[in-house]
Amino acid sequence: MAFENPSRQEIKQILESAGNIAIVGLSDKTDRTSYMIGQALQLRGYRIIPVNPTVTEDILGEKTYASLKDIPEPVDIVNVFRRSEYTPEVAKEAVEIGAKVLWLQLGVYSEEAYQTASDHGLTVIMDRCIKVEDAITSPVRGR
């Protein structure tokens, strides 16, 4: 069966119930899309957890972790800013930490990551921007 993203209503429910969002590939450079989206999510009331093995300093005021497995608290959404070929490994880590959702950003798509995550009960969203979806599904966020 071909992959299909959840409906807008389902995405709205995912975002409304989201606690921690781990952002894999979050850059510490303010001109990068991942940084801007992470910052926008924070401003909308989400708790972000930066994941970037090349950064040792905090990003957006949050402790940065080298991998998903290093995060000492539950993660609801794993939002991925990595090229498609790197996402199957991220999907395996998302499964290992018990995440609920694997979200591949706009332009990122992987059947293998989808299969790994969905086989273990994760909801998968691919080739969609979490910031755009949040704005569309929840124009006013009450956090």
Descriptive overview:
It is a single chain. Strands 2-1-3-4-5 form a five-stranded parallel beta sheet, sandwiched between helices. α1 packs across α5 and α3 packs parallel to α4. With 143 residues, it is an alpha/beta fold. The termini are far apart. Helices cover 34% and strands 15% of the residues. α3 (87-96) links the parallel β3 (77-80) and β4. The chain has five helices and five strands; from the N terminus they run αβαββαβαβα.
H and E string: HEHEEHEHEH
Sketch the major β-sheet: 5 strands, parallel
Portion in strands: 5-15%
Task: Quote the average pLDDT.
Answer: 95
N/C terminus separation: 37 Å
Shape estimate: globular
Strand order of the largest sheet: 2-1-3-4-5
Secondary-structure class: alpha/beta
How many helical elements? 5
Helix content: 25-40%
Low-confidence stretches: none
Radius of gyration (CA) equals: 14 Å
Tally of strands: 5
